[in-house]
Amino acid sequence: MEFIRVPQLNANEDEVQVVEVAVSEGQKVKKGDLLCTLESTKATQDLEAPVAGYVRRLAVEPGEQIAVGELICALTKRPDEPVETMQERRPRASSKGEVRTTRRAEALIEEYDVDIDKINHSGIITERDVLQLLGISRDDLRAPTDRPGGPSATIDEGRKDGIVVYGAGGHARVVIDMIREGRRDLHLVGLIDDADDGPQQVQGVPVVGDANRLHELRERGVTMAALGIGAVTHNALRAELFERLVRLGFELPNIVHPDATVESSVRMGQGNQIFAGAVVSSHVRLGDNSIINSNSVVSHDCTIGDHVHVTPGALLAGGVSVGARTVVGMGATVYLGVEIGSDVVVPNGTDVHDDLRDR
Ligand code: JB3
Question: 291 CA distance to ligand 1 centroid (A)?
């Protein structure tokens, strides 16, 4: 077994840049095949395989700065020969066993608190794999993400798939995951957060400013928005922010988690969010901007008004109607045909068998 490490290209430089990686994990190479191209400020060098073998523990990727002596890869006689290296970073534990990461991937995983089980990779997690999950480009990483109102992240002018999420808290986290998993056709441009002391980014999506930036984003070609504020007990706020986004000319797509069930006979307006495990059954009518939260059930023929929040585990029997801005609490059950008015808060775990008037 041969360990291929970064050579000293010139005496006074202890780091080189990886310009190109010509092989992939598990690839068979002959002696003399190009492994990668390295560059220092004064020299460029093609690194060739000193022996034939299988590329194992490939630990570099293009664009990376890497120290002299660091491992590039190992070459083994057999494809399944065990490889232990002294210097190698401890593999990460994932639900599918141990998995290795490149340095840049490791840094992103740490910085953005990424769940490695969600990263698609082919044996070693690279920066590219992590960026893909985060839905951002390497340029986004360089973009300064100041607090609200700053110049902040790059907005790809004219992209028709750009979406901005309004909010940067717990609900925004879920909306980001749902877009990444259920709306891969959309490109997460950034988050809008009105809080003064909010985060710089959430799950790798930069905070690009406060509500004052929305108009500019729209002018610069961001056509879509999603409301990432759950406001669990004051839905009037959600209604107000939704109307603001509509007035600004944003399109608010419905976002449905791939693990939700929405029957084909369902009709809904815009800006609705259907979370994982939720069931929206036959012939349900949804208005605009409602949240059907995780594992809730909206049975056949229900009518759900605008800005409603059916919270996790709430169960609505058939033919129930729910008025605008009403919140149905977690685990509540609503009996067949009950009519719940607008601006009602149904406490968690309540059994509702009589109609409830507005407010
Ligand atoms: O219970 C569940 C499953 N989810 C809850 C969700 C429905 O509502 C979640 O646990 C939270 O209780 C809540 O999520 P949300 O709204 O993301 O809350 P929080 O995690 O506290 O994040 C607050 C976000 O809302 C931040 O981005 C704040 O800037 C923003 N926010 C709060 N109040 C506001 C206001 N933004 C504006 N523009 N105006 C406000 O009054």
Answer: 13
- CATH number listed for the domain at residues 2-76: 2.40.50.100
Q: Which protein residue's CA is at the shortest distance from atom 1 of ligand 1?
A: 232
Measured in Å, residue 276 CA sits from the centre of ligand 1 at: 19
User: Does the pTM of the predicted model rise above 0.85?
Assistant: no
Residue nearest to atom 7 of ligand 1 (CA): 230
Class of domain 162-229: alpha beta
Confidence of residue 71 (pLDDT cuts 50, 70, 90): confident
- Between strands 327-328 and 345-346, the pairing is parallel
Report, at the CATH architecture level, how domain 92-140 is classified: Irregular (4.10)
pLDDT, one tens digit per residue, over 4-57 is: 988 888 777 778 889 999 999 899 999 999 999 999 887 889 999 999 999 998
Measured distance CA(330)–CA(236) in Å, rounded: 19
Distance CA(228)–CA(298), nearest Å, equals 22
Q: Is the dihedral of CA 126, 132, 135, 139 positive or negative?
A: positive
pLDDT in tens, 121-175: 777 787 778 888 887 766 665 444 433 333 344 555 556 789 999 999 999 999 9
Q: Cα of 63 to ligand 1 centre, how many Å?
A: 38
CA of 233 to the centre of ligand 1 (A): 10
State residue 132's pLDDT score. Answer: 82
Q: What are phi and psi of 253, to 5 degrees?
A: -65, 150
CATH number of the structural domain 253-359:
2.160.10.10
Contact 130, 110 (CB under 8 A): no
